Input
Amino acid sequence: MPALADHRSDTRDALARRLCDEFSSFPSDTVRRCVTDVQARMAHLGLEATPTRVERMAREHLTGRLKSQPPSVHVQADGVDG
Output
């Protein structure tokens, strides 16, 4: 089974890299942890954790986190004083 584990790891890394580029406001460790957590949750629930499903769900989680940040975080990140 090591080959299967390596395949999952490679796929997870590729997904995390794509999402890191898309969600550059988050640290890469946060994005990678989100992808790993989503994959683990899907497996725990008995769902097939396909790369497409994992990426879609991780993107939804990260988008939700981004939208739930207070406005002051966005102002400071843009370099504008409030």
